[in-house]
Known about the structure:
CATH topology: Rossmann fold
Number of strands: 8
Strand order of the largest sheet: 2-3-1-4-8
Strand content: 5-15%
Largest sheet: 5 strands, parallel
Radius of gyration: 17 Å
Number of helices: 8
Helix content: 40-55%
Shape: globular
CATH superfamily: P-loop containing nucleotide triphosphate hydrolases
Number of domains: 1
Bound molecules: adenosine monophosphate
Structural class: alpha/beta
Amino acid sequence: MRIVLTGPPGAGKGTQAVHLAACLSVQHISAGDLLREHVDQGSALGRNARTHMLAGLLVPDRLTIEVVEERLARPDTVRGFLLDGFPRNLVQAEALDGILAASGSELDAVLDLEIPEAEVVRRVAGRRLCSQDRRHIFHVAYSPPEVAGRCDVCGGELYQRDDDLEATVRRRLEVYRSETAPVVGHYRAQGLLTTVSALGGVQEILDRALAAVGRGQDESQDRDEAPDPSGS
Ligand code: AMP
């Protein structure tokens, strides 16, 4: 199954993507994580990407498309993938159409997580990630760790993403409205789009997302393995 997961920052894409990909036995591919890997490695691409990420802006299409295309070419995506945070504008959406067409494949579904903007700022500004595994996500108010500043899953130190500061979150929302929202129309026109409410608990949202891709509850086995929602 090939799925795109979209929605504003703070809709819970990262959290839902991890669960959904596990339930559907497909690779979770996060454009943001791929870019952060380059930033951590200090590659030329990473240094360039970092300045845009810190400003809450989109990384230039050429760089983002390059890292996603390279990732999609790896053999572990043959059984399918769940793309999280890509495409984020129409240029990227058309690039993805081209990449898939070239390999003779196509998307099965696009899920758009929907959430009011006031809730976005609350969720993102309180989000904390584990420094040892960024998939372990907490929230200072909604899902605090048992020991302050420590990951419940592996004991790693929790940190706040540089681009989760409130001013940057507001900028990311503006970018979402102007650049990413049109992607929804692109997929609606292709008959692929389903809107999923991102309000409620992790399991509730996961059930809606699974229903939207035609999968029932028995696929949702990993429901208790990750920490609670925090809006990544
Ligand atoms: P995320 O982890 O999805 O919240 O993305 C964090 C940041 O990475 C974004 O604010 C952008 O600066 C950058 N980024 C992630 N995905 C993309 C994309 N598809 N196109 C351009 N920039 C992206």
